Amino acid sequence: MQTDPIAGTFSGNRGLQIEEPLIFEQGEAGRSGVDLPQPPKIKDRLGGLGRKRPVGLPGLSEPQVIRHFTRLSQKNYAIDMGIYPLGSCTMKHNPRLNEKLARIPGIADLHPLQPESTVQGALELIDTAAHWLKTLTGMPAVAMSPAAGAHGELCGLLCIRAALEARGDAREVVLVPESAHGTNPATAAACGYTVDPIPANARGRVDLAAFKAKLGGDVAGTMITNPNTCGLFEDEILEISRLVHEAGGYFYADGANFNAIVGRVRPGDLGIDCMHINLHKTFSTPHGGGGPGSGPVVLSAALAPFAPLPYVVHGRDGFRLVEHDGVEGATGKAFGRLKGFHGQMGMFVRALAYMMSHGSDGLRQAAGDAVLNANYLMALLDEDLTPAFDGPCMHEALFDDRFLKDTGVTTLDIAKALIDEGYHPMTMYFPLVVHGALLIEPTESESKDSLDGFARSLIGLARRAKAGDQKFFHEAPRLTPPRRLDETTAARRPVLRWRPPADQPKAAE
Ligand SMILES: Cc1ncc(COP(=O)(O)O)c(C=O)c1O
User: Fold this and answer.
1) Quick check: 444 and 369 in contact, CB under 8 A?
2) Residue 97 has pLDDT above 80, yes or no
């Protein structure tokens, strides 16, 4: 009888880590959890379009279905289970107070087509959240409807394009640093711009000389993340802002990392024209894994008239939602709409709850604690790992893979081994300007104990790699179901949906 090579169990399971086949692999044709009488024969009214063969649903009983999904749910890693150190993603605690408020029936049961007079409170709530965002960023206007950071980027660039077209000066190029999040160049390209990359200097910041050299009459604007994705403050930001404006372009700030500076720096004072704010990063709303999220965009006076519809205004009889250009209170220049209705109401409630429960001093402290935690980790790790740049960091600690030189172990192997340690790995191989990057963002949510535990595991792994234990790393993760995947085949020949064995593609396909 065969046993699992690592755990020595007959079942192949490792304690509560249970191998879970797909539901289709567990089902049996013809088996059912219910026993219903045969329906009487009825006359077919589908004109011959009726299904010719069974739907192919797996045949399982109710307890089998429940166990399948419960076991799957137990395989999830979540911010409510432990540190989630994904750099650039900002996985922070979602306070339960926010959830409680978002579930108040008067809020949760609102319908977006209710008459304005019945949703005055909701419009006031959106307006209040907008007021906080404008105050914290030092900007005069905000578009609330974008549904994520990347959607906010689209909103900002469409405002820039509309502003350029309005002055009869359509331009073609957007300058984006090489360290930028992939959504920046992707958004610029989606808006029809040519993306011109700006290299990073030896200090991990925008290379100002290269930036200057690329500025010209065809530059629509630049997209700069600050603090940047190397976890560093762009200390020449005022000069960048001055230069891009002097060249007639606009300054898009990627505000994904606003969580490191909120309450301390007002992006409006840096001369930006627009910036998206990922509410999940700075204001603790749940990270939706692609949505539904919220990425409001703050706008300068120059871009505000082009903001998308709808927006909330104060009318004679209270709050109004401006849904169309050409009505009272509209600017008449909106570039269009980005989204059905007015955005993610549930996210506005949660973000506002976070802002009001913390107050401006609490938000400032949260930013300070996020930076402190990242620097504490950096200090714990800097002898065993290799920090990518000298000096302190902002809210995320970035390492390169020099500490793995000649060990035969890679950043990927370290990440796999971390899973066995019970941790979600950090962001790997991003930003691209750093070789074999390990980007760790602990956020302000983590306690000293939690940071110490995480660092202990990483230090242990780094030392094990240097001691030459390649086999251990190449087999990792050893304690998960399933174990290490064949990433090359997964990338080259991805199997994205289950097919019955008879329909499986032949090996040569
Ligand atoms: C720097 C940066 N910009 C933009 C984005 C895109 O934001 P979202 O995932 O909300 O679309 C992210 C997301 O992680 C990011 O880290």
Assistant:
1) yes
2) yes
CA distances from 205 to 57, 446, 476 (A): 54, 27, 35
User: What digits encode the pLDDT tens for the residues 298-317?
Assistant: 999 999 999 999 999 987 88
Across 455-477, average pLDDT:
97
Contact 473, 409 (CB under 8 A): yes
Alpha helices, DSSP H only, in 75-192?
96-102, 105-108, 120-137, 149-166, 183-190
Closest C-alpha to ligand 1, atom 5 = 149
At residue 505, the pLDDT reads: 64
At residue 423, the pLDDT reads 96
Mutation pick for ligand 1 pocket among 84, 88, 228 (CB with most ligand atoms within 8 Å):
88
Residues belonging to the chain: 509
Closest ligand 1 atom to 257 CA: 1
Ligand 1 centre from 237 Cα, in Å? 20
Tens-place pLDDT, residues 167-185? 999 999 999 999 999 999 9
Instruction: Please determine, for residue 94, whether its predicted confidence score (pLDDT) is greater than 60.
Output: yes
Checking if the pLDDT of 485 tops 60, the result is: yes
Ligand 1 centre to CA of 221 (Å) is: 19
Compute, in angstroms, the gap from residue 256 CA to the centroid of ligand 1.
6
Output the CA 228–ligand 1 centroid distance in Å.
12
Ligand 1 centroid – CA 113 distance (Å): 30
Please give the number of the atom of ligand 1 that sits closest to the Cα of 153: 4
Mean pLDDT of 426-447: 97
Take atom 10 of ligand 1 and give the residue whose Cα is closest: 149
* Residue 89 DSSP symbol: T
Q: What pLDDT, on a 0 to 100 scale, did the predictor assign at position 506? A: 63
d(CA 252, CA 138): 15
Closest CA to 393 of 228, 202, 225: 228
Beta-strand relationship, 250-254 and 274-276: parallel
Q: What is the pTM of this model?
A: 0.92
Q: Sort 76 into a burial class: Cβ within 10 Å, 0-12 / 13-18 / 19+.
A: exposed
Ligand 1 pocket, CB under 6 A: 88-89, 148-150, 181, 183, 225, 229, 254, 256, 278, 293, 295
Here the tokens at position 133 are 């965002």
